[in-house]
């Protein structure tokens, strides 16, 4: 790609030093008799702290020294030169976009101050935004009026890009810089690292941040999409990314947190996240649905979106800035009674729901988090109950027995009965009544009734705080259970706070190396990982693993569980090589300590297989996933969730290697078994069916050959 005249005009003369940059320049010479002359001067810029890093470069701060008048500060992005033509194209495209759009015009884009280079790197100097990026201001949902302000400003920038045949391709809060924070926002679009000029109707390369990618970028199209549209996308991918961003600003949550949920939406066109938008006006909900249209051809353009009625509403907003995270409210002086009334309508059928483990494209197919040796059923750790009548004890103990037998629906009924008996005999706030309420939460959690589980655990925690004190281990157990329920609903920010309080409390009450303390730490690490706070999660797991290894030894089950969790944090951070080493160590250690067919051993092997797949080492991933499938099938049966998830993952591995015949057999089996166990309309069933249809339509000659390598153990 030849650099344009505009780009070349912005090039600065510079000499790059290890600690900064110097620029030769000129300044007026006001000495007597030298009017109109200029004398040479060298500007010295000293390098400061790193502001951030991404796929295509690192950004640091530089300060001009000495600086006359106000201090002069700039941000400098450094991009390593590459012999790879495709990477060089990205760099040239960013230079062109910065030169064209980021001059001080209309305040829509971060201003570019010029660029320079040496033999190894290209440097782009930009205005320094002291307030940072928008992501730092999204700890809680923002009021709807403030979301409107941000959206309108971004749309004006997007329209400017699109009118000039550019597409940004990586819009997200981290690439939106803040000039003024709320309640009167002024934001600018930054980071043109993957922007691109489009001369034709569509583009093809797949770049961006996973949770903000439009479905067409992931190869997901509504039924009936013409073949000409496959693998092509238009500038309206930016509108989808904006929709995800505005949704997150309003809800502090993502509309489609997993591949499963996105795939289901594209196939059915049923906009699912309305439950997350309960505090948003109907106009706002409708506007978001238009931004997030699965069919790019009917998705709003930037110009159309700017004309929408939601953006034209008056600035007054009755909604306060208070966080709108859904909290159960207690009624009157008896918070426990509300849970009893609410629970009477709960159905008794066993229901399974998908659990999202991570937020990358492979993540929805990663193994679910299982027991690591840290986590036991909270019901089994209940304090023995004494001094009660046989009837009051019998129902409670029978419920615990049913839980241990994994008869969760019956356990729920029995524990509901135990709770009501004890509430009538002892009162709502007696510790034994609260023990039954907590155990009822356990039964609900095993049945994936996440909303009801949150309600019950929250009331158990509130009741135990009053009856036993905030630092009591039973109170902390209910708090930890609340964290689990929030995590299962993807309420990661609130879960983080809950787990952190449980972890700190358990450290004080039980000790740093106690299994319950480590269980809360495990949950905290998961909540951090799901918010992309990888470095903090990694550091937490590393500290806990080292402490456990010192206390119990490297071969201890708990130590190995923390080693596995550390590997998961690294893997989620994209540190695949380091994660592979630790997954392998955890698997080998569990193999020796627990046995080859223990569920924890298989869990580490499962993660290792998916890690190799993430590195595109498909053959090795296939070999290991075959072992995982066989182990899960022998341990849990052919139709268990673990077995079917492994079978589905294996289908993806086959499909990626163009082994279409094997993939078709595997996806068909996964679809049939999921249909039988979960139901025909469950999102996991539909996902397997979707893959089966895609594989069946493959035009590859391989799709017609017989899958010999599948026998005998896939039959």
From TrEMBL:
Q: State the UniProt keywords alphabetically.
A: ATP-binding, Autophagy, Kinase, Nucleotide-binding, Serine/threonine-protein kinase, Transferase
Q: What is its main location?
A: membrane
Q: Where is the composition biased (Polar residues)?
A: 370-386
EC id? 2.7.11.1
Q: Where is this region: Disordered?
A: 15-34, 357-392
Task: Please provide, in alphabetical order, the Gene Ontology terms of the cellular component aspect for this entry.
Answer: autophagosome; cytosol; phagophore assembly site membrane
Protein kinase domain location, by residue?
A: 45-311
Query: Its membrane topology, per UniProt?
Result: Peripheral membrane protein
Query: Which InterPro entries does the record cross-reference, listed alphabetically?
Result: Atg1-like (IPR045269), Kinase-like_dom_sf (IPR011009), Prot_kinase_dom (IPR000719), Ser/Thr_kinase_AS (IPR008271), TPR-like_helical_dom_sf (IPR011990)
Q: Which reaction does it catalyse?
A: L-seryl-[protein] + ATP = O-phospho-L-seryl-[protein] + ADP + H(+); L-threonyl-[protein] + ATP = O-phospho-L-threonyl-[protein] + ADP + H(+)
Q: Which GO terms describe its biological process?
A: autophagosome assembly; regulation of autophagy
- One MF term in GO for this entry? ATP binding
Location(s), subcellular: Preautophagosomal structure membrane
Q: Which chain regions cross the lipid bilayer?
A: none
Q: Which PROSITE patterns match?
A: PROTEIN_KINASE_DOM (PS50011), PROTEIN_KINASE_ST (PS00108)
**What is this protein called in UniProt?**
Serine/threonine-protein kinase ATG1
Q: Which organism is it from?
A: Penicillium thymicola
Q: What is the lineage of its organism?
A: Eukaryota, Fungi, Dikarya, Ascomycota, Pezizomycotina
């Amino acid at each position: 790609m030849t650099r344009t005249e505009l780009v070349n005009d912005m090039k600065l003369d510079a000499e790059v030093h290890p600690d900064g940059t110097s620029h030769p320049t000129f300044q007026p010479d006001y000495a007597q008799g030298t009017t109109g002359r200029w004398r040479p001067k060298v500007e010295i810029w000293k390098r400061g702290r790193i502001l951030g890093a991404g796929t295509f470069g690192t950004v640091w701060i530089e300060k001009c020294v000495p600086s006359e008048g106000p201090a002069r500060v700039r941000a400098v992005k450094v991009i390593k030169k590459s012999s790879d033509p495709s990477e060089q194209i990205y760099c040239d495209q960013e230079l062109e976009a910065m030169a064209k759009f980021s001059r001080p015009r209309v305040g829509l884009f971060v201003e570019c101050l010029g660029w320079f280079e040496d033999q190894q790197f290209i440097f782009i100097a930009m205005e320094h935004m002291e307030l940072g990026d928008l992501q730092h201001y999204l700890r809680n949902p923002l009021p709807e009026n403030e979301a409107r302000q941000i959206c309108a400003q971004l749309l004006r920038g997007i329209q400017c890009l699109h009118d000039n045949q550019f597409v940004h391709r990586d819009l997200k809060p981290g690439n939106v810089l803040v000039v003024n924070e709320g309640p009167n926002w002024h934001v600018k679009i930054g980071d043109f690292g993957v922007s691109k000029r489009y001369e034709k109707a569509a583009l093809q390369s797949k770049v961006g941040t996973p949770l903000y990618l439009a479905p067409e970028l992931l190869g997901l199209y509504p039924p009936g999409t013409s073949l000409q549209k496959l693998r092509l996308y238009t500038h309206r991918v930016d509108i989808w990314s904006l929709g995800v961003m505005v949704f997150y600003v309003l809800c502090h949550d993502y509309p489609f947190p997993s591949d499963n949920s996105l795939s289901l939406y594209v196939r059915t066109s049923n906009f699912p996240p309305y439950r997350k938008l309960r505090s948003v006006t109907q106009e706002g909900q409708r506007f978001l649905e238009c931004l997030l249209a699965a069919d790019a051809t009917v998705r709003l353009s930037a110009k159309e979106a700017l004309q929408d009625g939601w953006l034209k509403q008056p600035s007054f907003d009755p909604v306060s800035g208070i966080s709108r995270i859904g909290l159960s409210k207690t009624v009157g002086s008896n918070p426990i009674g509300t849970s009893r009334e609410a629970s009477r309508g709960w159905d008794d059928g066993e229901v399974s729901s998908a659990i999202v483990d991570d937020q990358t494209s492979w993540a929805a197919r990663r193994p679910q988090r299982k027991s690591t040796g840290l986590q036991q059923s909270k019901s089994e750790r209940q304090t023995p109950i004494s001094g009660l009548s046989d009837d009051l004890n019998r129902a409670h103990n029978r419920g615990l027995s049913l839980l241990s037998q994994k008869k969760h629906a019956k356990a729920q009924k029995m524990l509901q009965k135990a709770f009501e008996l004890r509430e009538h005999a002892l009162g709502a706030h007696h510790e034994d009544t609260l023990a039954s309420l907590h155990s009822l939460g356990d039964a609900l959690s095993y049945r994936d009734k996440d909303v009801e589980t949150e309600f019950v655990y929250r009331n158990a925690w509130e009741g135990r705080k009053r009856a036993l004190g905030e630092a009591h281990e039973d109170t902390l157990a209910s708090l930890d259970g609340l964290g689990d329920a929030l995590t299962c609903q993807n309420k990661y920010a609130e879960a983080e706070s809950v787990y952190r309080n449980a972890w700190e409390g358990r450290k004080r009450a039980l000790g740093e190396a106690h299994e319950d303390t480590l269980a809360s730490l495990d949950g905290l690490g998961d909540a951090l990982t799901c918010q992309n706070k990888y470095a903090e999660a990694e550091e937490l797991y590393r500290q806990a693993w080292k402490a456990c290894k010192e206390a119990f030894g490297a071969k201890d089950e708990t130590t190995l569980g923390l080693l596995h969790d550390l590997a998961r944090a690294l893997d989620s951070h994209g540190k695949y090589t380091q994660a592979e080493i630790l997954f392998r160590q955890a698997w080998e250690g569990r193999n020796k300590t627990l046995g080859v067919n223990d569920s924890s051993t298989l869990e580490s092997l499962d993660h290792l297989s998916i890690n190799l797949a993430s590195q595109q080492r498909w053959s090795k991933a296939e070999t290991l996933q075959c072992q995982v499938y066989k182990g899960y099938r022998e341990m849990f049966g052919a139709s268990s969730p673990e077995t079917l998830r492994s079978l589905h993952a294996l289908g993806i591995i086959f499909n990626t290697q163009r082994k279409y015949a094997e993939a078709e057999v595997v996806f068909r089996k996964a679809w049939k078994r999921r249909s039988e166990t979960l139901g025909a309309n469950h999102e996991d069933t539909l996902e397997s069916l979707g893959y089966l249809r895609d594989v069946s339509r493959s035009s590859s000659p391989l799709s017609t050959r017989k899958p010999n390598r599948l026998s005998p153990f896939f039959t």
